[in-house]
Amino acid sequence: MCPVVVAAGSRVIPADDMEVGKPAASSGTRRLRDGYVKCLLAVRAQTASRIEHLYYRMGVAVGRRPLLTCVLALLVAAAAGSGLLHWRAGQTDVELYMPADSWVRQAAYFVRDHFREDVRYESVIIEADNVLDPDVLRTIAEVEHDIKTTAVRGRTWEELCIRYSSWFQESALPGAKASGSTPQYPRATELPTEFKQALQQAGLLKNDCVYQSLLKLWPDGLPANLTSAHVQKVVTKGMRSSKSLVTDMSSLLAGVTTDSKGRVVSARAAIFNWLLKASDDAAPDWERDFLDKVLQKNRTKPKGVHIYAVATRSYYDMLDQVLDSNMTVLFAGFALIIFYVILVLGRWNLIQQRIYLSLLGVSIVGLTLLSSYGFCFYLGFHFGPVHPILPFLLLGIGVDDMFVIVDCLDHITKKESNLDIPERIGKAVQTAGISITVTSLTDIVAFATGVTTSMPFLQSFCMFAAMGVLFLYIFQLTFFLGCLTLDEYRVAAKREGCCFIKLREWKPNNLSQKDFMYDLFAKHIGPTLMKTPVKIFVIVVTLVLAAVNTWCILQIEQKFDPTWYLDSASYPIQFNNKLNEYFPKYGKRAGIYLVNISYYDDAQKMHMLSQQLRKNPYLNHDSLQIWYEDFEKWMEQNHHEPEDEDDYKGYLSEFLIFTRNGQEYLKDLKFNTFPFGDYNITTTHLPIQFILMNTTHEQLLGMSTVTDLLQSLNLTNGKHAVAYSPEYIPWYTNQLIGEELLNNLGFGVVAVAIVTLVMIQEIQITLWVISCVIFTLVDLIGSMYLFGLTIEVSTAIIVLLCTGLTVDYAAHIGYEFSRLPGSGNERALTALRLMGPAVFNGGLSTFLAFVLLGFSSSYLFTTFFKLFTSVVVFGCFHGVFFLPVMLSWFGPPSYIQNETHGDADCTGHLMVSKAVTIPNGHCTSSVDAVEVSIVTEKEETPPVAIHPLQHNGGTHYAGGEVIPEGESMLSAHQQKW
Question: Per the database record, which ranges form the SSD domain (predicted)?
Answer without folding.
Answer: 326-486
